[in-house]
Amino acid sequence: ELWAETLTEQLLRQLLPIADQLSMALDASASTLESLRQGVELIARNFQRLLEQLGVKPIEVTPGQPFDVYRHEAVLQLPSNDIPAGHVVKEVQRGYFFRDRVLRYARVAVSVGPQSNHQSLPSEESTSNTDANAQ
Asked: Does 27 share its domain with 47?
């Protein structure tokens, strides 16, 4: 139990500078939007560095790569003329590894292939013809 408490204390010590930076960013937000943006970027970089020191690494996701059930969680299915069915269209939420295990799956949108004609929205011309017939 003492071991777990010591580890928790060490982690909290590493998180305190990030809490300080958040406070500074909020104080700076009163001056300009640009200073707020810079402050948040600094916090994000420092937080990523801390995660890396703790053995946490992001799962790399690139559009067009095959969907991988061991790294990805499909949360959306999207039609795509450019990306084949069963491949990643975009990352929705970043996933992470902790050492060699998935800490959180990358949430992704997956292609269902090209959109078929019967699913397409009415064209502007067909909509205007319908409006003209209604008059």
From this structure: yes
**In CATH, what number is assigned to the domain containing residue 92?**
2.30.22.10
pLDDT of residue 65: 98
Would the pLDDT of 91 be above 80?
yes
Decide if 128 is inside a domain. Answer: no
Domain ranges, residue 71: 58-114
Residue 79: left if φ>0, alpha if ψ -120 to 50, beta else—which one? beta
* Lowest-confidence region among 8-22, 28-42, 99-113: 28-42
The domain total for the chain is: 2
40 token code pair? 């948040």
DSSP three-state, residue 50: helix
Q: Give exposure, 84-108, as e/b (b: 16+ Cβ within 10 Å).
A: eeebbbebbeebebeeeeeeebbbb
Beta strand ranges found along the chain (DSSP E): 56-58, 72-78, 88-93, 96-98, 101-104, 106-111
